[in-house]
Every structure is written in structure tokens, then in C-alpha cells.
Design the sequence.
């Protein structure tokens, strides 16, 4: 069991207190053998970026159900880039209408956007996919 | 049923069981959405010892299983109260007027996250969040705009607000007075249920003790000055949305209720003095019968405990009044039109369960806040049920059904089991502290998601019968200028108002908060001189501290 | 990698983070790395915190962090949570209570899973401590769940070990695992506002009375971490223990033993690797196993036989 593990930061940015999804995803990732750093509610973008740095994570997952995703996601991406962490994959889940999702992806702010209805297997699979393509390069 | 008849039924049941054991069965599991196995058939045998007077009683009579009013919807249809709010007070005021025009009979305010968490719109933590999932209210001025043209003596208002409930309530009361309406004629509800925040909704500000103090301050002030006001809406909705089962929703909500009763008694209030104004708020999830039975069990449990354990004498203390909202977590982002159907079924269960007021979700709520069109359909759903389906013509029509009474009993006994476990842990605060509720909820949520992913639990349009077409409905967009406009208006307000008076009030508040006075009068004074919510919360945070999330998993 | 080490010594957090990962993942350059940074270790003071789940370790760590920072100390934290024995994954949630310090330049927090090590503290955890030591942190706090062998691990790793308990309520201190009394330098009764705190305190003190007195008698400190109560006393106790260790020469002795153990472990590790890289799952090995099974050979002679064939010096 020692050896390389995938480390994922599951973060709740902003004032949104709905953590059911984040906690369910965290569990699923753990059950898939990953190490999930969960930092709790009400995280500022700065806290998230700094945590990603210290924990040397492979992927950051943001859970946003407050409608503030178009402000928070770019802000977090920007901070990550400032810290030299622009390469870390950033995925976002929550209440995100399709055209916002498209904008986030097109603008390079997120690598993947999940919505309610996406299965845990899909999310886990996507993260594993991101990891393997990173490891190849 | 006499012994000879019962024996005959038992024999016939056995042959029926033989018969069905040879028949093919569908592959789907036969359990409720909560995972409770469902019997193929219930018969009188399942209700041995059932006593109409003891277990059901008449509507409006103890133990109120059949309903809390003697003539229920024959007297008055439930209040149609759509939870609503977005953007700034102007936007929401327009929506409220629209809903009232379309036949809504009560108002329900959804506040934005900064307001819920006690931040003004110009706070750095409010960036990007202003007006996004509710209306932005920073001061009495916003409250005045919100209720412009809406006479608050003619319509009751429910406000979903917890941590800063006292402040928003005072703004509402101050506005009423400005409208020339005396407080004894003002009716409504504040959610004000901090215990479920720690457990489920997680929009907390202060730690438990000072939060309880604010809650009992509201109880006490209302008892003396705002007698028509429901001082708390003890909520199961959020517990369910966080992933709990129906039995957990029932048990944890009632347990919270008992904790508030005990807090009120401990604060020196006579139970019959504040209990009549306690109200509840439940979820209406998609498993039709389970929900109906949940409401009936809730009424019975509450009545019995209030009478036997807390010695309440006033019948109004024993009657559980509740609002229901159809389950947001049952809705899908795919094929959102299907949500209209889900909501209709859920609304029907709430009605058959005897709810006093009802919110029906809009079909687009998994994607955004509701558009006018979507919320109108949701409202019409209630109206069709009320006026076309006939279900409101008779009271508790499912009462006496073998299945319904069996399931009601079953839910009640599961709830009692939870009460026992909570007692063993040392009471509700201890249970919250050690993460008991949170763990039960998280486990249930995870199991549910796994079941869906595995296809064991069917969600039409998602894991069965899905078309994979792109979603094609209009969605509500929040005007991005809302935030900057709000910030600008806030700045102007702070320049216009009497800042000396504001400072003085805040000082007095700081002093009183450190003592044990009822804080409502001073908060009322502060809001009247246009102290902002953020300023008041900041003072209280200094005195009370802030609650910090438990590192539980 | 040289680059990373240089950056670590310059105080770059990204380097520290990457190096801890390297160490955790047992990557091939690891030994080289540890060799390079070793000269810069030995300065940090290591505080170990252990206790049953739910005793409030991360809350206490958070408060201690505050205290240390207000005294101008730089701090590294390693928060260890158990990995799932089934999936190997873990949810590392200790940061929830420490996030107030996330933006403090002088604090570095790293969450680690136990990753299958039998105790709460693995070799890699201790190596991660070395990274933070070389990184220049004045204090490194290692916070771990008291399960399995972890208590023993922690006392070998830390200079001062805190054992956390909560008021037992009905249970008594007797139910504590054997060995816990021996390893604590300081006992912390957290959530001391709950009933039974005094009883627990009395019981611990009674047990301490019964033991033969070492030179250091572990104090019992009561705290309510969530409201910052008792933290000053705890800090006092920590200072006192540190002074005692330093003044009595015990600290040197502890570190000497630690180094000796590290050396022994490394030698054994190398030897083991040497042996098993040469003795593969060959037909010969399987053959031996069959012979032993049928009692034509015994495991003791077989082992000696195998060993004779090992070349240790290639």
C-alpha cells in the first residue's frame, strides 16, 4: 500500500454551506484509493490555493452550489497560476448552468465541470484519467 | 377484529403468500427511497391492538394524527407559500408582487448567502455572492423596498434566516411599524433553528450557547409583543436535503424541537407561553406514502411528548403546525421537465399528510433560481391539487388504510429508537458535539448515491430512460450589476444616516450582549437608525465568538 | 532534485511540499535527498500529539499553533489520519480546524495518511519531519490518532509527547490502553467542560503516584480547546518539559537513541533489500518451502543456507 497515491483537494469556496456533495465525493475518492484533503466550509480562494501548494495535490475539486462559480473559479485559477500551480487540474462541481460550464472550460478556468446527476464513478474516472495523462507527460 | 375472523384472515394470508411466492417479481428493490423495506400487502393483522381513539383520534383532537384543525382544508386550503428571493430588494419585491397576483397566499423570503452569514454586501467575503441565491438585505432600507406595496398585516411572511434571525426579524418589525401596522397584528415565521444548522444546513455564525440565548430572546419578545408570530420553524427539510432518511428527518427534527422546548423552560418561560408558536418545516420527498406517514407520525409523537413529558396543557402547544417544501434533492438537472411531475407527487403527499403551508419547487431549481414561468407552474401545481383533484374535500383520507397506519407506526418506532440513542449519548447537544447526526446523515447520503450509481435506485431520465438531449430551458440570470449597485447604495446609506446614533446603539448592544438582557429591543433600536446587518453581527461576534466547524468525517 | 533541496533550504514552500511527496511516495531519489538534507536537520523541536479519535487533537493543535506563533516561533505541522485498510485511500480532514493558519507564512501544514503502516506513524512520516526540520521550522508538531502501535512510534519520534484524553464519563482511566501511561510527557484532558473531567484528572494522578517516579512527573493539564481554555497552562507545561530535557541532558540522550535507531533501521532496511532482491520467488525457494512443509528440511537450516548464497558486496 505504500507508494504513490493520488492526492485530491476537495474545497468549498465562498459562503456556501451545502457540503453533502463534497462529502459524498470525498468518500468515493477515498474508496477509490485516493487521499482526499478536505478543508471544510467557507474557504477563501487564498486558503484554497495555499492548501493546494502545501499539500502538493494532484487535483483540486471545487464544490459550489451558491451560484458564485463564475467569480470564484477564475479567482482561484488565477491564484494557483501566481503560485506556479497553474498545472494542477481544477475541476468544479455544483449548480452550474451549461453555458457557464462551457465558459469556464473554454476560458481555461476549469478542466472539467460536473453537475448533479453525474455519478461518482464518472467523477472518480475523470480524476483518474487526469492523473494518468499527467503522468504520461 | 375478533379472534375467529383474525384466524381466517391469517389462513388466507398464508395462502396468498404461497400464491405470490410462485409469481415472478420485478427486479427493482421494494423499499422506500429511505431504504426501508416495503411489505407487499398490509392487512388487519398488521394493526393488532390498533385503537382509533388512542392512535388516531379526530382531526383537531389529541393526538392529532389526522390533522391539527378540526375541519382542515374544508375550512381553509393550506397556505401557498413559495420560497423566493434573488438579486436586490427591487428584484425580489417585483417577484413577490407577481406571485401574490398569481394567487400565492403567503410570502417566504430567501436571503442571499452574505445576508445569511451576517456579512454586508460590501464585505470582501461577499464578493461574487451578492443576490445569487437569495435577496441581498443589508439594512432596514432594503427591507422597506422588499415589502413596498405589500401590507404586512394582510399577508404573513416566512423568513428563512437562522444565525442573524433576530436582526432580520427586527428589520421586518421595524418596517411593519413604518407601514403603520402595530406589532400585534403582524404574522409570520422566522426559521431561527440553529440546531439544524450545526447538523445540516451549516449556515451558522455564533456558537450554540449564545445562539440559544438569541432564540429564547425571540421567543420571549414575541410572546409579549408579537403574539401572532411563529418564533421558530424547527426544520427537517435541510436534514433531509443533506441526505438523511425519512426516519432520521423525523427523529432529528423532533429531537431539535424538544431541545428548544427544554431551552425555553430553562430560560424560565412557561411552556404554554411559547410552545404554541413553535412551528415545523418538513421535506416532501418522492416516496409518496413514506412522506404521508412521516407527517402523521410527527404530529402524534409531538402531541404525546409535549403532553406527557413537558406537561403542556394548552392544546395549541400540542398541535404540530408545519410548512412543507418539496424535495430539492429529488430533482434532476437532466430532463428538468420531469421535475414538474416529481414536485406534483411530492406536493400531493404533503397535502395528504395535512401540511399547513406548502412550497413547491420549480423545475429549473437544480440549475439556477426559478424563472417566472417555472415558478408559476409550481404554484399552479398547488392550485390544481387544491381545486381540481378533490383531495382537499375530505380530511386525512388515507387514515385507516392498513398500509398507511402500519407505516406510520413503523416510522414512529424508528424515531423512538433514535430518541433513545440520543439520550444515551447524553442529549442533543452532546450528540451534535460528537457528530452523531452528521455521521448518520453522511452515511445515508453516501449509501443513496452509491445505490443510484449502481442502478439499484432508479432516477428516471438519469439512470434509466434517459435521452441525453441537451437541456433546453431558459434559466434565470442574476444581473451582475446587482452587486455593484448594492454596494453603492450601502455607501450612500452610511453617509445619509445618523452615524452617531448608530455608534451609540452598537455600543449599547455590545454592553447588553455581554449581559443577560433580552437583546431584541436594542437590536430593534439599532435597525431603526439604519445600522446594517453586518455591523450588528460584527458586534455580536466580538462578544459571542464564532462557531467553528467540527472536523468530522 | 538538487534544485529542490536548494529551494527548501531557502525556505520555499513549494519545494518543501514536493520533497515531502517524494519522501511519502518512496521515490527512487529519496535516499539521495535524505542524505542531502540530513546535515540541516536536528534543530527543530518535535512535539507529538496523540489520543483517541474525538479527543480534539486538531483543535488543540490549532490553539498550540496560535500560541507558538504569538511567541515568534515558526511551526510545521504533520497531521496524520488513518488510511482505509480496504482501499488504501484516506480522508484527511485535520486542516478543517487549522485553516486559520493556512495563510500564515511561518506555518506549514501537511496532511498524511498512514498508508498501511501498522502504527499511526510510518517511516515516511518521520522522514517528512526531517524535511520540515531542514526547512527551518523551529517546532514540528506531529499529530496522530492513537491506534495500533502509534503511541510507541510517536514517543520515539517526538521530544515531548502529549497524550490527549477526554473526560471518561462512565468509563475510567483503566480502560486506556496499556502503555499510554508510560509514553506521556504531558497529559491533556480536553473537553474539560464535560462531566467527569475532575474524576479523570484524579485517576491519572493516582496512577502516576503508583508508578515509580521518573525524574519527570507528567503534569495533567485540562483544556477546552474550542474556547481556548487551558492553553496557557499547556504551553507552560511544554516549556517546562523542554527545559527539563535540555537542562538534564535528557534531550541529548533521547536524540542519541533516536539516531541509533535510525541507523539500525537503515542498516536493516538495506540488508533486507539486498537479500530479497537476490532471493526471488525462484523454483529453488519454492522447493525449499515444499521440503520444509514435508519436514525434510527445517526453516532454520534453510535460512542459513539461503544466506550463504547472498552477495552483500556487489
Sequence:
Amino acid at each position: 500500500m505504500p507508494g504513490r497515491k493520488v492526492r485530491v483537494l476537495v474545497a468549498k469556496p465562498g459562503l456556501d454551506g451545502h457540503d453533502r456533495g463534497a462529502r459524498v465525493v470525498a468518500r468515493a475518492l477515498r474508496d477509490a484509493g485516493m487521499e482526499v484533503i478536505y478543508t471544510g466550509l467557507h474557504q477563501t480562494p487564498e486558503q484554497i490555493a495555499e492548501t493546494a501548494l502545501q499539500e502538493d495535490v494532484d487535483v483540486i475539486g471545487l464544490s459550489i452550489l451558491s451560484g458564485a462559480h463564475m467569480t470564484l473559479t477564475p479567482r482561484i485559477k488565477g491564484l494557483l497560476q501566481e503560485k506556479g500551480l497553474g498545472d494542477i487540474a481544477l475541476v468544479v462541481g455544483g449548480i452550474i448552468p451549461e453555458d457557464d460550464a462551457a465558459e469556464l472550460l473554454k476560458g481555461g478556468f476549469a478542466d472539467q465541470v460536473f453537475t448533479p446527476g453525474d455519478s461518482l464513478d464518472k467523477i472518480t474516472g475523470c480524476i483518474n484519467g487526469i492523473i494518468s495523462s499527467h503522468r504520461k507527460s | 377484529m375478533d379472534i375467529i375472523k383474525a384466524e381466517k384472515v391469517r389462513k388466507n394470508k398464508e395462502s396468498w403468500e404461497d400464491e405470490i411466492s410462485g409469481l415472478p417479481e420485478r427486479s427493482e428493490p421494494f423499499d422506500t427511497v429511505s431504504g426501508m423495506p416495503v411489505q407487499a400487502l398490509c392487512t388487519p393483522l398488521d394493526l393488532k391492538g390498533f385503537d382509533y381513539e388512542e392512535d388516531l383520534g379526530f382531526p383537531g383532537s389529541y393526538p392529532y394524527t389526522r390533522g391539527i384543525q378540526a375541519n382542515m382544508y374544508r375550512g381553509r386550503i393550506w397556505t401557498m407559500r413559495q420560497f423566493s428571493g434573488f438579486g436586490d430588494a427591487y428584484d425580489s419585491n417585483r417577484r413577490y408582487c407577481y406571485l401574490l397576483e398569481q394567487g400565492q397566499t403567503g410570502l417566504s423570503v430567501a436571503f442571499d448567502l452574505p445576508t445569511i452569514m451576517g456579512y454586508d454586501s460590501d464585505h470582501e467575503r461577499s464578493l461574487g455572492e451578492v443576490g445569487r441565491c437569495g435577496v441581498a438585505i443589508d439594512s432596514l432600507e432594503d427591507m422597506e423596498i422588499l415589502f413596498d406595496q405589500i401590507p404586512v398585516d394582510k399577508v404573513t411572511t416566512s423568513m428563512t434566516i437562522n444565525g442573524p434571525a433576530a436582526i432580520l426579524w427586527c428589520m421586518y418589525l421595524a418596517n411593519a411599524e413604518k407601514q403603520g401596522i402595530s406589532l400585534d397584528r403582524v404574522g409570520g415565521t422566522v426559521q431561527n433553528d440553529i440546531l439544524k444548522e450545526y447538523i445540516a444546513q451549516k449556515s451558522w455564525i455564533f456558537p450554540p450557547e449564545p445562539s440559544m440565548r438569541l432564540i429564547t430572546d425571540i421567543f420571549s419578545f414575541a410572546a409579549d409583543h408579537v403574539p401572532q408570530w411563529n418564533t421558530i420553524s424547527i426544520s427537517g427539510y435541510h436534514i433531509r436535503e443533506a441526505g438523511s432518511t425519512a426516519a432520521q428527518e423525523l427523529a432529528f427534527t423532533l429531537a431539535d424541537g424538544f431541545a428548544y422546548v427544554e431551552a425555553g423552560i430553562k430560560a424560565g418561560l412557561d411552556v404554554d407561553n411559547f410552545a404554541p408558536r413553535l412551528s415545523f418545516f418538513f421535506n416532501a420527498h418522492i416516496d409518496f406514502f413514506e412522506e404521508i406517514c412521516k407527517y402523521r407520525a410527527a404530529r402524534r409523537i409531538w402531541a404525546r411528548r409535549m403532553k406527557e413529558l413537558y406537561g403542556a396543557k394548552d392544546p395549541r402547544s400540542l398541535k404540530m403546525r408545519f410548512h412543507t417544501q418539496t424535495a430539492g434533492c429529488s430533482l434532476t438537472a437532466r430532463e428538468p421537465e420531469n421535475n414538474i411531475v416529481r414536485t406534483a407527487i411530492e406536493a400531493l403527499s404533503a397535502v395528504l399528510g395535512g401540511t399547513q403551508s406548502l412550497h413547491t419547487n420549480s423545475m429549473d431549481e437544480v440549475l439556477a433560481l426559478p424563472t417566472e414561468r417555472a415558478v408559476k407552474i409550481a404554484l399552479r401545481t398547488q392550485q390544481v391539487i387544491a381545486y381540481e383533484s378533490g383531495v382537499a374535500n375530505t380530511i386525512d383520507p388515507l387514515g385507516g388504510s392498513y398500509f398507511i397506519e402500519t407505516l406510520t407506526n413503523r416510522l414512529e418506532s424508528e424515531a423512538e429508537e433514535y430518541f433513545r440513542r440520543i439520550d444515551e449519548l447524553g442529549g442533543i447537544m452532546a450528540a451534535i458535539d460528537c457528530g452523531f447526526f452528521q455521521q448518520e446523515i453522511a452515511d445515508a447520503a453516501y449509501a443513496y448515491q452509491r445505490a443510484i450509481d449502481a442502478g439499484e435506485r432508479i432516477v428516471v431520465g438519469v439512470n434509466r430512460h434517459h435521452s441525453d438531449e441537451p437541456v433546453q430551458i431558459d434559466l434565470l440570470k442574476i444581473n451582475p450589476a446587482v452587486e455593484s449597485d448594492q454596494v453603492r447604495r450601502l455607501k450612500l446609506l452610511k453617509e445619509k444616516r445618523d452615524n452617531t446614533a448608530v455608534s451609540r446603539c452598537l455600543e449599547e448592544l455590545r454592553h447588553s450582549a455581554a449581559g443577560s438582557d433580552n437583546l431584541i429591543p436594542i437590536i430593534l433600536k439599532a435597525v431603526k437608525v439604519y445600522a446594517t446587518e453586518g455591523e450588528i453581527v460584527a458586534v455580536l461576534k466580538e462578544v459571542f465568538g464564532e462557531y467553528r466547524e467540527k472536523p468530522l468525517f | 532534485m538538487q534544485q529542490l533541496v536548494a529551494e527548501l533550504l531557502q525556505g520555499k514552500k513549494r519545494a518543501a511540499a514536493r520533497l515531502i511527496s517524494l519522501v511519502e511516495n518512496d521515490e527512487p531519489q529519496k535516499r539521495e535527498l535524505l542524505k542531502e538534507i540530513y546535515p540541516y536537520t536536528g534543530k527543530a523541536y518535535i512535539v507529538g500529539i496523540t489520543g483517541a479519535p474525538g479527543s480534539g487533537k486538531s483543535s488543540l493543535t490549532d490553539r498550540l499553533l496560535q500560541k507558538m506563533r504569538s511567541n515568534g516561533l515558526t511551526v510545521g505541522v504533520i497531521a496524520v489520519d488513518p488510511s482505509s485498510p480496504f482501499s488504501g485511500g484516506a480522508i484527511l480532514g485535520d486542516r478543517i480546524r487549522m485553516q486559520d493558519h493556512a495563510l500564515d507564512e511561518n506555518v506549514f501544514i501537511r496532511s498524511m495518511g498512514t498508508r498501511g503502516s501498522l502504527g499511526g506513524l510510518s517511516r515516511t512520516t518521520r522522514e517528512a519531519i526531517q524535511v520540515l526540520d531542514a526547512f527551518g521550522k523551529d517546532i514540528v508538531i506531529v499529530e496522530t490518532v492513537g491506534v495500533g502501535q502509534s503511541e510507541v512510534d510517536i514517543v520515539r519520534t517526538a521530544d515531548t509527547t502529549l497524550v490527549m484524553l477526554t473526560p471518561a464519563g462512565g468509563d475510567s482511566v483503566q480502560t486506556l490502553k496499556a502503555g499510554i501511561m508510560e509514553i506521556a510527557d504531558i497529559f491533556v484532558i480536553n473537553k474539560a467542560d464535560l462531566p467527569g473531567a475532575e474524576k479523570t484528572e484524579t485517576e491519572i494522578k493516582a496512577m502516576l503516584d503508583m508508578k515509580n517516579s521518573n525524574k519527570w512527573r507528567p503534569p495533567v493539564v485540562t483544556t477546552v480547546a474550542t474556547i481556548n481554555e487551558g492553553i496557557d497552562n499547556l504551553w507552560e507545561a511544554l516549556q517546562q518539559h523542554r527545559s527539563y530535557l535540555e537542562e538534564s541532558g535528557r534531550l541529548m540522550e533521547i536524540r542519541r537513541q533516536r539516531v541509533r535507531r535510525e541507523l539500525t533501521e537503515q542498516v536493516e532496511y538495506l540488508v533486507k533489500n539486498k537479500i530479497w532482491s537476490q532471493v526471488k520467488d525462484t523454483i529453488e525457494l519454492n522447493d525449499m518451502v515444499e521440503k520444509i512443509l514435508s519436514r525434510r528440511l527445517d526453516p532454520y537450516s534453510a535460512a542459513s543456507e539461503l544466506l550463504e548464497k547472498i552477495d552483500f558486496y556487489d
